[in-house]
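Question: what's this shape?

___
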Amino acid sequence: MGVGHSHTHDHAHTGEHGHAPADFGRAFLIGIVLNTGFVIVEAVYGWLSGSMALIADAGHNLSDVLALMLAWGASVAAKKAPTDRFTYGYKSSTILAALANAALLLVAIGAILFETIHRIAEPAPVAGKTMAIVAGIGIVINAGTAALFLRGQNDINIRGAFLHMAADALVSLGVVIAGLAILWTGQVWIDPAVSLLIVLVIAWGTWGLLKDSVAMSLLAVPKGISERDVREYLAGLEGVAGVHDLHIWPMSTTETALTAHLVMPNGHPGDGFLGDIAHELEHHHRIGHATIQIERSPHCYGGC
């Protein structure tokens, strides 16, 4: 079961010990229902009160509902069985969803920033009391939804959903503060000033998600796994004279795969040796899918 080479050496595939992503189906359902309802309420009250801030925030929340749907769809797809064409199944859809969620956050940041600049240039009367009450409801809904995804931070797809809802809670908090401050002082410039601070906070969290999702899309070694440590471990095994063609990449946002060629001049040491490698890689290096090829020489072709 060699990988990508015409060598005829002994080789074997270690047992697969992957960890399926945790099931957040209920969390996604609750989050989508609550936030869809809030988008409608916020848009209606924004229109009735003439508050563009609430309407803009409703649009931001709508993008987050779409993001939750996207992340949920990817988590469901990741559990589907492999096919003849998609031999890994659809696990990598979680990486695509995380990347798409980062993109949606950037779009939301752009929309809020655009509205903020517009408000700075053309200040408008704002119904501070209505802003504060409606946004206060938003804090409860968004913070509660974010809490549903708090325990899944090791999965960047779930982290993307968490960041969306946490960002919404921050936006709602900012709107409450701005609404109360406007109500007390009558200074309408407070609204865009607070919005600008919120944009900076959201952008800071989005940057990390974007970097991680792009790196995974490019099959980079996942964070928390050291290629050097893995190579040193394999090279230090008894009977191993060399390691080459070592590749480590994410199969999904929660599962990692590895392929490697071990040069062992004395030949294949047996399945127990491969089983020990699989156990070590899974429990100490967080790699659950490993394919190891044994070779007598690094340049062995034909009759080695």
